[in-house]
Amino acid sequence: MEIVEDTYLVHRYWGKKLTSYHFSNRPPLKKRTFAAAPIAEKPEVSPEFLPFEFPYPHQGDFRNSAVQIQQANGDELVRFCFQSYEIKNGVNQLSDLPHARGADEEAQTLIIYLSDQIAEIELALYYTIFADSSVIVRSSKIKNIGTRPIKIAKLFSASIDVRYDQQLSTTFYGTHQKEFQLNRSEIQHGLYKIGSSRGASGPLYPPYIALSKGADEFRGEVHAMTLIYSGNHEIILERDQYDHLRMQAGLASETFSWQLNAEETFYSPQALLSYSDRGFNGSSQSFHRFFTDHLISPAWKNKERPLLINSWEMTYYDVNHKRIIDLIDAAADLGFETVALDDGWYGKRNSSKTSLGDWTVDTDKFPDGLKPLVDYAKEKNIGFGIWFEPEMISPKTELLQKHPDWVMRSKNYEPLLGRNQYVLDLTNPEVQHFIIETVAKTIMELGVSYVKWDMNRHMTDPFSQQQTFESTEYPHRYMLGLYRVLNELTSAFPEVLFENCSSGGGRLDPGMLFYFPQTWISDNTDGLDRQQIQYGASCLFPISSMTGHVSDVPNHQTNRVVPFKTRAALASSTNMGYEMNIAQLTEDEKKAVRSHLKEYKQERKLIMEGTFHRLQSPFEGNTCGWMFLNKEQAVIYLFRNRYQVFDLSLLIKLPGLDHHALYQEETTRQVYSGSELINCGLALENPKGDCIVQKIKLKKIEAESV
Ligand code: DGJ
Questions:
Q1: Distance between CA 136 and CA 139 in Å, rounded?
Q2: Catalysed reaction(s) (predicted)?
Q3: What is the pLDDT of residues 50-68, one digit of tens each?
Q4: Angle (deg, nearest 10), helices 321-334 and 371-379
Q5: Which residues are near ligand 1 (CB < 6 Å)?
Q6: Residue 456 · residue 199 · CB < 8 Å
Q7: Mean pLDDT value across residues 182-202
Q8: Fewer CB within a 10 Å sphere, N or C end of the chain?
């Protein structure tokens, strides 16, 4: 960064580590017609040509701003001038938002102070770096140092100005049952904007953007950015007429505002920035490491996750005592470690039309309640988990009759339904308290070891019937309410595994990862679609954070029939579980499941803690390949989807292996050099049939003597 003319904080470089910097890339400035020129004798110094660290509007920058403030007198002008900076040890632990974690000796935070003495507003920019990571954490803070209230109309977390250099942009897009699709495209002149106004981070455009230059999975530069936030957000890319390129991330400005009274401060969520010169794999690997070391709860870091059997696709709402007992018996027999009772156990929940909010056990289905089931599972050495959708309320409930004012809605319009339900007003502390008490009571009374936290509709009518703040404050206040609830529950029950779900990966983002070590990434368990979903999600999220289940065929979402081995390999490439009627398997099927679980248990540590490498993209061709690697071994899966008679054999190259080592392949016992597997690749049979998978297991045997 540089301070230009003692005023403007500008950006100079973000990339590969430099030994020292002497402004070699600082462009000479040139006077231009239409450019604002604040210094009369230096007309070439115009905000239009400066690469700002945090641009503000109406002052000649003319591009998308990162902050907008309305003063009490209605003035929308601010001129933030550089004031000072300080460097502190540690990270800025935000008390009401999820945030990066790090001890004082692991991280340092640079805080740059800018201020406008006329408007009496201070802007602080935070940059945290870590000894063991190349990820940079950025955020911003506004402080009202005047005596009258101000209104923040926009506050981003990070803004970066670079030169357009034919980079491509990569973002996610998706929908229910097709999350984390990759969108890679050229950058045109103008403004490109993605984000969410749904009250949840996805599944349309989860917060992620990457700029890549001549990059593929293995080579080239990638600058990527994401947000530790789960609600309405905005990602901006702007290429102007001079080929300045601006990349920004933060709270969605259209659905946000915040009144800040005298002496109050407001913190933005944190943005995470990762630079890689090893292509997209390098970029994801730094995010994966960072999330594992500095975001998820330390209690769950590298902690073995249970092999789970979930009741949903086996029973849907038709759960009862006998069926769950049968499920526990089968689970114990086959080698599962936790049984999860999904939707349908409470109120009169026989369809999606009722009972959310009435969280008492349905005694028609479970005459003795759920405790005997949990105890029975315990006797069999199996954990027991339970499903909740705590943020919601169904129209026909006792809860709604008792507390009609707890629904998120305006006073004048009937609220809209979504999946037959309304959203609870989480800005209301009474509602927060109700959710905390209900979930905590169930956990304590039953002694469950796992909770699936679902959220199946998006927000309409974002208003509180009780609170008095402006409606544009609502979406962020909802998130603060939710984060408070999650913080209380996950801190009170650190030994309980909380799994995030929003009809699959509809709200999977780094913010949720702070509270939930794992997420059900898609309701779509189809053996073809899952390849893209998992491949895409892995661009940002570590494998340990994604759960994947083997389900029945024909697949319930697509009606497609994909061989068991392929479905098993896909689930094995995540934090694994099953979702089918395991109580009614044939002897052959049982044998296959038993051996699959045994194999997964042997490889679980490698899959969960090893380095993940994407090898062949299902977005680009007929195959999808990836590798799990640690110092001793590698497991590689190659999915080949459509059989083509032209393809006499398959070939997979394995960049990422140790160039100087020798590896032995498990089935053939053949020894290969790392360098040949990296550069020449490994040739494989191409068996007939669609949707097949090949698994290769390599053991490092020794360093090759050169
Ligand atoms: C949506 C989830 O994604 C499913 O796994 C299941 O829990 C249903 N909700 C239950 O209603």
A1: 10
A2: Hydrolysis of terminal, non-reducing alpha-D-galactose residues in alpha-D-galactosides, including galactose oligosaccharides, galactomannans and galactolipids
A3: 999 999 999 999 999 999 9
A4: 20
A5: 312, 342-343, 387, 454, 456, 501, 503-504, 520, 523
A6: no
A7: 97
A8: C
Determine the residue type at 368: D
Q: How far apart are CA 493 and CA 482, in angstroms?
A: 17
Question: Is 255 in the same domain as 330?
Answer: no
Which of 318, 388, 456 best tests ligand 1's pocket when mutated (most atoms within 8 Å of CB)? Answer: 456
Mean pLDDT over 327-346 rounds to: 98
Give the chain's mean pLDDT: 97
Residue 705 clears pLDDT 80, i.e. is over it: no
CA angle 530, 532, 536 (to 5 degrees): 120
Token reading at 20 = 């020292």
Q: Which protein residue has the closest C-alpha to ligand 1 atom 10? A: 343
| Region 489-499 average pLDDT | 98
Same-domain status, 587 and 519: yes
Task: Please indicate, yes or no, whether residues 90 and 169 belong to a single structural domain of this protein.
Answer: yes
Q: How far, in Å, CA of 396 to CA of 235, rounded?
A: 39
| Closest C-alpha among 66, 67, 29 to residue 48 | 29
Please indicate, yes or no, if residue 536 is contained in any of the structural domains.
Answer: no
> How many angstroms separate the CA atoms of 80 and 125, rounded?
12
Residue 618 belongs to some domain of the structure: no
In a domain? residue 15: yes
Same structural domain, 93 and 151: yes
CATH number (domain holding residue 160)? 2.70.98.60
Is 611 within the bounds of a domain? Answer: no
Mutate to test the pocket of ligand 1, among 519, 521, 523 (most ligand atoms within 8 A of CB): 523
If pLDDT is split at 50, 70 and 90, which confidence band does 95 have?
confident
Domain count, the chain: 3
The domain containing residue 656 runs over which residues? 623-703
Q: Which residues contact 39 (CB under 8 A, 6 or more apart)?
A: 5, 45
467 — pLDDT class (breaks 50, 70, 90): confident
pLDDT at 706 over 60: no
Sign, Cα dihedral of 258, 260, 266, 268: positive
Residues 271 and 364 in one domain: no
pLDDT at 702: 81
- Grade residue 304 by pLDDT with cuts at 50, 70 and 90: very high
Atom in ligand 1 nearest the alpha carbon of residue 352: 11
In a shared domain, residues 632 and 593: no
Q: What's 688's domain CATH number?
A: 2.60.40.1180
What pLDDT does 704 receive? 75
pLDDT score of 245: 98
Are the CB atoms for 26 and 12 separated by under 8 Å?
Answer: yes
Q: Which amino acid is at 502?
A: S
